Amino acid sequence: MAEATGWLLDVYAEEDGITLWLLTDDDKRLCLRMDFDITFYAAGDFGLLRQAWIYLKEKDVRLERTIRRDLFLGERDVMAVTTSNPAGLQKLFGELQRQFPSLDYYDADIPITLRFIAQTNTHLLGRCHVRFDEKWIQSIEPLSSPWEIDPTPIPLRILTLAPDCNPAIRKPKQLHVKYGQREYSLSLDLPRLFMIGLKADLQRLDPDLILTDYGDTWLFPQLSTWSEETGIELNPNRDEHRQVLTRKADSYFAYGQVTYRGVQSYLFGRWHIDRRNAMSFGEYGLEGAMEQARVTGIGVQEMARKSPGAGITAMQMLTALGNGIMVPVQKQQVEGTKTLSELIRADHGGLIYQPLIGLHGDVAQIDFSSMYPAIMVKHNISPETVGFDKLNPAGLENAPEGLIPKTLRPLLEKRLMLKNILSDLNPRDCRVEILKARAAALKWLLVVCFGYLGYKNARFGKIESHEAVTAMSRELMLQAKEVAEDMGFTVLHMYVDCLFVQQEGFRKPSDFTPLMNAIEEKTGIPIALEGVFKWVAFLASKRDARVPVPNQYFGVFQDGMLKYRGIELRRRDTTTWVRKIQLAVLEVLARANTPHEFANRIPEVMALVERAKRELRTGRVSLEELIVRQKLSRTLDGYKSPSPAARAALQLQTKGRQLAPGQSMEFLFACNASGVHAWELEEALDPGRLDTKRYFRLLDRAIRTVLDPCRPLLVPERLL
């Protein structure tokens, strides 16, 4: 019997068990097999269950009557269906569900990786020790935990492939290849030679990860086409018995916007990540995607493409499996009935204390660390614990620890530890970027966990628990405000989980330490000092200067670092040119140490703006910097009055392009009939047809955003 120790890279289902890929300590890639039974459950009317039993007796399954726990309904008498064919589970379940749609089904659509982790306690990307006989695993022992702060680095082989241009705009001529320190290009002019060269590279380098640009939407479909045309078979999988798994493009509504996800290409035995088609990869990169895969149990190439909500759902499933709780295929709980007055009292959301409009000096921003997850953990808020004590509905601490707190506790603790490590490191330390990426990946999981409490399709969601969290957060924010005011501070603004405070003579971070200690002692939730602003500006509504906008502000910390929220710099549809000028203006203003020094900086700001406009008028600004990016919010025939993005999409549609809601359109404002010019059109826009007046208006709006809070301090001739 052979043995091996290493990192678990991949797990997927087969008809007779599962396949595992192990990266061993001696740099080998082992493909191992393992027997693996899967069980799902059905519950409901006894007569229907008996009919389902008779129906399934003709299938290759084992049946058993048993008792299992439903999170909300408690113990249930269920029929357990066990199969030794993991790959055939969905077909088996689909047939059963079509025959008996009235039954309640559990554990039928849990990803194979989560089932494997629940049974073996061996996590993806974790270290393990295996004993195997002729590639069949006899035993597997975990050697690490996903909650380790400093996991052993995995020596991955990474091959990067990127075309020399966006294939949607023009036909690429070369494919840039990078492996380690070596970079070179493969010509695309002769497909046969290209296929031979790329196939040789894959065999020679044997990468663990193929990192691409436009790999999902262009490269892999193109490889398939050229393979048929040239007769050269190129299988990018490490598992030669598998073909590339392709999932169709789709549009879906998530986090308040329509999102488009292009065609996806998944590999077996190695990973493929398309940087242009991965939802959050641009924010935290490979290290962040691996961190999310480590704690959620979803494979790296899949987690890179999924939303954080899918990750938190997977974590809840793992917790349920580990605690003997069945996972329903469909959500079964609905919102309890409320009177109108009860609904008004319950459905308030987070607390927002409107800011005092204008410029303020020496302001501290104090944040509750992961406030909502911390509330859920500390106060044991979970769908099944809300209302546990009928005499005291708020007394959630009396209930056994809920599913959600159990899921979030290690995640919350790990992120706080990473943040503490980061705060102690020198910013130039080589570990900082990796730790930031990992902390950001965990942050996004924590951000969405609150929303999923009230999400209509969440397996373990219940709106009452969502409302309990916001009610608790409002109370804690009011407690923090009272503490601050009792200690002589002025509270300028409060927004959900942070507050801005000011007191005459308080400038150094240490001046605010007693306040932070008092708030943390009062609320029991960890807090952190985001920083002390030299000055911060809270903005007014553009429609009514008397009305503040709570989520729009900008300022500069004492170390010179800028912070801005809600202004043009943060908007995705702001052109690079406007963004650069607004940032340059803020950097000029950041040299002012007090609000009253702003007036001295205005002439420099106005000169900068005039210089930028002159450069645009004389054609010295590249068209790439003027591209506007906006998403299509619906199908093109759904627009009554087409937006600029829709007008650009109509131009592409006349050229044969098929477009879907959620796709991002790139265009220039132009002096033509439609007012826009789609960037992906083959014919380039004549620079003389550029609508410079429209761009001037965009720039003026961005500059007014920055200067409006300063107007009370300025003399009239210095106003924009």
Description:
The radius of gyration is 29 Å and the shape is globular. Among the domains are: 158-205 and 209-269, 2-Layer Sandwich (Nucleotidyltransferase, domain 5), CATH 3.30.420; 346-566, B family DNA polymerase, palm domain (Palm domain of DNA polymerase), CATH 3.90.1600; 567-720, Orthogonal Bundle (Topoisomerase I, Chain A, domain 4), CATH 1.10.132.60. Helices cover 35% and strands 24% of the residues. It starts with a strand and ends in a 13-residue tail after the last helix. The strands form 7 sheets. Strands 19-21-22-20-23-24-25 form a 7-stranded antiparallel beta sheet. A hairpin with a 7-residue loop joins strand 23 (527-540) and strand 24 (548-557). The protein has 720 residues and is of the alpha+beta class. Mean pLDDT is 91; it is low at 390-395 and 715-720. The protein is built from 18 helices and 28 strands. Helix 13 runs antiparallel to helix 14.
Quote the beta fraction.
15-25%
Return Rg in Å: 29 Å
Strand line-up in the sheet with most strands: 19-21-22-20-23-24-25
On the 0-100 scale, what is the average pLDDT? 91
Helicity range: 25-40%
Query: Which class of the domain at 346-566 in CATH terms?
Result: Alpha Beta
What distance lies between the first and last C-alpha atoms, to the nearest angstrom?
A: 80 Å
Structural class call reads alpha+beta
Biggest sheet layout: 7 strands, antiparallel
At the fold tier of CATH, the topology name of the domain at 346-566 is Palm domain of DNA polymerase
CATH homologous superfamily designation of the domain at 346-566: B family DNA polymerase, palm domain
pLDDT below 50 for ≥5 consecutive residues: which ranges? Answer: 390-395, 715-720
- Second rung of CATH, namely the architecture of the domain at 346-566: Alpha-Beta Complex
Count of DSSP strands? 28
